[in-house]
Amino acid sequence: MTDPHPISDRDWTRLTLLVIAAFLLLRLAALLLSGFELTYDEAQYWAWSRHLAFGYFTKPGLIAWLIRGTTEVCGDGVACVRAPAPILHAAAAWFVFLAARRLYDARVAFWSAFAYVAMPAVSLSSLILNTDVPLLFFWCVGLHATVLLLEKRSLARAFYLAGTVAVGLNAKYAMIYLPASLLVYLVATADRRPLLRTGATWVALLGGLAGFLPNLIWNAHNGFVTFHHTGDNAGWEKIGFKFGKIFEYLGGQAVIPGPILFAVAILAAILGWRSARPAADRLMMWLSLPILIVIGVNAAFAKLHGNWAATAFPALIVFASALLCNGRWRGLLKLSAAIGTAAAVALAAGASLVGHVPLPEKPRQLHRLLHWADYGDKLAEAARAAGVRTVVTVGRPMTSETLYELRDSGLDVRPYVAPGAAPADQFEMTIPYEPAVHGPALLVTEADPAALGIAPERIEPLGALDTRIYKAPGGRMPIYRIDR
User: Fold this and answer.
1) Other C-beta atoms lying within 10 Å of the C-beta of residue 449
2) Can you tell me the distance from the alpha carbon of 352 to that of 206, in angstroms, rounded to the nearest whole number?
3) Residue 362 counted as domain residue
4) Counting Cβ atoms within 10 Å, is residue 139 exposed (0-12), middle (13-18) or buried (19+)?
5) N- to C-terminal Cα distance for the chain?
6) What is the per-residue pLDDT for 1?
7) More confident: 363 or 86
8) How many domains does the chain have?
9) 407-439 b/e with 16+ CB inside 10 Å = b?
């Protein structure tokens, strides 16, 4: 059926920008109004940003550079630390639009961008900063670069893709899936195989690896700790098939774009459904489904990491949107967009109310983002009362949060590392507490100091902080003076 009032490409573009801007403003407002404090991962990234490097214990360095950029502009407040999240997701949606418009048309591009910016996972990820945010941004830029390269081979377009991969690798190593998936697509697609005989293609496929060199050099100087950490996370040391994990994995993946788009894309791949542009459909499937399969195998045999397949979804939602956009199932596309929008508004509204209305007792995870500022104030007061300038913490969560909360106190925060123990995080590797060097300190921990290997004669109990942070048993966090 022909639309009696067709919308021009220019109007689709304007509508796309309007939708993206509306979601961005909604999320920025939520960040400004919310009383949620930083997660310990976010506090860790902020602490990294005070000491810029090309790598850190668990991740490459880009997340720290991003935070440093925004905090140099607007300060170290929670909203400013998180500001890159909604901004980069909004920009990513625009690149989804650009890629889909090249592959299909402006209508499909609008619904693809709408689907991206309204994805439930993007709505959540826009309010809490993590390394998937810059990864997905550069992946969406890379998707656009890939489409341009396949449309017309040139060194300029090859360098566009290679440069995007190079920077994206410094967000997260998963960026390597893009050139890897593109290579498999070129090998598997007969009419695209001739591209493998051109220099521009190989510049695009391999040139991005140059961006990996700074992090590789950093790792070489630090015992390849990031590689060891990533390998440990994969969980292959405890290999064993777990049938139930497959369904858990698929259920988790369906939540990321929303169940409608996920089901449509998977069913279409299995049943052979295609849009009016089957060649474009094949490209989108090759840039999404292999990633879902590879991470699914890891989930079935080793560890389940649902977010490891996040890069599959930009191409997957373009494919699903193209299938639904011009067919009799267009209502499903609109329903998915409506559900995603409602979820985005609900999340933003809920976050905005935190700090202004009492939180329910459950889910308990919400309470992990509260009471840290009060904890920091009381801890600083206790340290000064004890006559020490160093605060010692135990474990990455406590070290990260304490570093952030005591950032303007003039106190030195350092993690405790048991004698002979290997560092377990960036802070234990770079700023461990050394009694002979740092002198007396205030130890804050819910653990028994004796279990940490601290001799009783070096410890003086000082009571406990009255605090409601989730780490404090019964609302009280024990503190001790620890001497040389």
Assistant:
1) 19
2) 44
3) no
4) buried
5) 82
6) 45
7) 86
8) 2
9) bebebbbbbbbeeeeebebbbbbbbbbebeebe
